Amino acid sequence: MKQMIKRLAVFCGAKPGNDPDFMNMAQSFGADMVKRGIDLVYGGGQFGLMGEVANAVADNGGKVYGVITDQLDERGATLTSLHRLEVVPDMDTRKRRMMELADGIVAFPGGLGTLEEVSEAASWITLGNNKKPVVIYNYKGFYDPLINLLDEMHNQGFLEEQFKAAVHFSDNIDDLLQFMNSYHAPHHRVYHN
After folding, report:
1. Is 42 helix (H, G, I), strand (E, B) or coil?
2. Among 3.40.50.620, 3.40.50.450, 3.40.50.720, 3.40.630.30, what is the CATH number of 7-181?
3. Pairing of strands 134-137, 39-42
4. Quick one: DSSP state of residue 47?
5. What is the CA angle 151-105-116, rounded to 5?
6. pLDDT, tens digit, for every residue of 118-127?
7. CA proximity to 52, closest of 13, 7, 19, 101
8. For residue range 75-107, what is the model confidence (pLDDT) as tens digits?
9. CB half-sphere exposure, 60, CA atoms < 13 A
10. Which residues pair with 41 in a beta bridge?
């Protein structure tokens, strides 16, 4: 199968989490991206999983594209050793720009910001505003509760099957890329009276 993913946007926590395995996962994932010829697009930060995956890509010879807000840059959150850095005025611009620069979107474990970012990318699929694949990296079952919530949304009639299926959960980079490289965005939601 031909590889379509050349740049991957990674949404993830600016904190390391309590389990050191999360940082190890980010480091390993970044190194695996470079082995597959995939560049990183991410939020531009130096801390937590963000910094770990960015440093792993850069340390292994890959390109890292960071997009950070003025506010976070002024607070000293920016990783300076990037291939390219864009400083943007707000979080909405940051998310939109990251999605524009990338061929696919993956969410690592993280907090409210990560959840909000991947939720927006997924919800835009229903509107027809995001034609790019969205994968939630379910490392150590971190996102199992979200799988259950999406199932419940579907079961209760709030989320159509094609949109639920358009968000892939995986803990394996080969599976993740196979999904992304064969992805076809569903037709946007149609409303009826």
Report:
1. strand
2. 3.40.50.450
3. unpaired
4. S
5. 60
6. 999 999 999 9
7. 13
8. 999 998 899 999 999 999 999 999 999 999 999
9. 21
10. 9, 65
